[in-house]
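Moderator note: this is an archived Q&A kept for reference. The question asked for a predicted structure of one protein chain; the sequence and the answer are reproduced below.
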Amino acid sequence: MSTQYKKIQKKNTHTNPKAEKTNLKPKASRDLLLIILIVFTAVILVLAWPNMDVLGRSMYVCLSIGMVIVYVNRHANFSEKTHKILIYVSLFTLFSSVALLALSVYQQFF
């Protein structure tokens, strides 16, 4: 009886970590929010294109590209190396959009 109990415990301990690792998909609500933000940014970019300066256009383009790369990285089946590259590219574009925003604010108010 105790040997069967130990066998069952071994089976349970080996299957639980695998079950936790396979459940790492992003939630659908986060994807919906990301899609809404991508569409909202694209609409702002299209409607306000004539009124924006070069700094504002480049900021919104970097932001849009970064969010699209994040979405593609979540849903595409790339290798681990490609995922890392896409993460670095998305971080670079998102941080560059923040830097362009800071530069734009500095130029307008100082």
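Archived answer notes: DSSP finds four helices and no strands in the chain.
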